[in-house]
Design a protein that fits this description.
Layout (H helix, E strand, L loop, with lengths): L1 E7 L3 H12 L4 E8 L6 H9 L5 E5 L8 H11 L4 E4 L5 E2 L5 H7 L6 E3 L1 E6 L25 H4 L14 E4 H6 L11 H12 L2 E3 L5 E7 L12 H17 L4 H19 L3 H14 L7 H15 L2
Parallel strand pairs: 1-2, 1-4, 2-3, 6-9, 7-10
Antiparallel strand pairs: 4-8, 5-10, 6-8
Helix pairs in contact: 1-2, 7-8, 8-9, 9-10, 9-11, 10-11
């Protein structure tokens, strides 16, 4: 059976739809809703459903304050009692038969997780461009688990998957350290990359969506500028993690290269910022002192700035 984990922060307009979409899934025996310091009616909605369905477990942080999505999801993961975990954001929802294909694939011993396609629903509060690249979030073709990291975004160009459309073994999530509490955004991308590097993730339904992302006026990803610095922190974290977990050199190279490219964009003409962040990564990954790619990255940046 499956445990579904949903962090909830001021999700009153969307929460009931999310809850109902989970309760129709017969494979779900446990639904953990972690209220993350909501100031609207979200907690009352959770409690009302808790009274009518024993699968629902309403949770709050001990201090009842807001701690962010990473800490809230980790709280749920620790409390989950099933071997299989799925996630759902409070403003998204599952489609019928969300897990039907996943469980068949997960019966194979060598499979640690299954990813699927995610669709989109535009709420009335969204008044932006609807021709956005998130209409269908998916890996565009079937890829063997051992090759997924190189081909999936942000490393490769064959698409990406979302946590709403992922079913994964609890031991695999714990095995990569769960969600990074230092990241307010991109924390999910970091975790999916770690899972692809260390475990076997297989494709499920990659053409038709199994879940729907709700797009509205307050979505974080609508403001892409908020992702720049978190992406840098993410790649810094991933490089350090890759060395610690002895990920093979060719894959570490790809992560180092992404870190340098992101650092270049974030730094702009600030040499001090670039060099400071360049050194900070070497502090946590001293093996980089012997890495030619890393030194060449510093040289290329300084030369590019000096020409301005």
């Amino acid at each position: 059976m499956i445990s579904v984990i949903t962090p909830v922060f001021n999700a009153e307009p969307f929460l009931e739809r999310a809850i109902q979409s989970v309760l129709i899934q017969k494979e779900v025996s446990e639904f953990l809703l972690v209220d993350d310091g909501s100031t609207d009616n979200s907690w009352n909605i959770i409690q009302s459903y808790e009274k009518v369905d024993s699968r629902i477990i309403g949770m709050r942080h001990p201090d009842k304050k807001n701690h962010g999505r990473s800490k809230s999801r980790n709280y749920g993961i620790r409390r989950a009692s099933n071997d299989l975990i799925a996630f759902l954001d409070a403003d998204d929802y599952y489609l019928p038969n969300r897990f039907k294909k996943d469980l068949i694939i997960l019966e194979k011993k060598e499979v640690d997780g299954v990813y699927n396609a995610l669709g989109v629903h535009f709420y009335d509060s969204y008044d932006g461009d609807k021709n956005i690249p998130h209409v269908l979030t998916r890996i565009t073709e079937k890829i063997e688990p051992e090759n997924l990291f190189e081909h999936m975004s942000p490393i490769g160009k064959k698409g990406r998957f979302s946590g709403d459309a992922l079913t994964v073994k609890r031991q695999a999530i714990i095995g990569v350290g769960m969600f990074n509490k230092k990241l307010k955004v991109a924390e999910d991308t970091e975790l999916w990359i770690k899972l692809a590097l260390k475990y076997n993730l297989s494709p499920g339904e990659i053409v038709k969506p199994v879940a729907i992302r709700g797009i509205h006026g307050s979505n974080v990803f609508n403001d892409r500028a908020k992702y720049k610095l978190p992406q840098l922190i993410m790649y810094r974290s991933l490089v350090g993690w890759a060395f610690k977990n002895q990920i093979k050199e060719s894959r570490r190279y790809l992560l180092i290269n992404k870190y340098l490219k992101t650092l270049n964009k974030v730094s702009g003409e600030s040499v001090f910022f670039f060099v400071g962040k360049w050194i900070s990564l070497m502090v946590i990954s001293p093996q980089l002192i012997f890495n030619k790619v890393y030194w060449n990255g510093l040289k290329s940046y300084i030369m590019s700035v000096s020409k301005l």
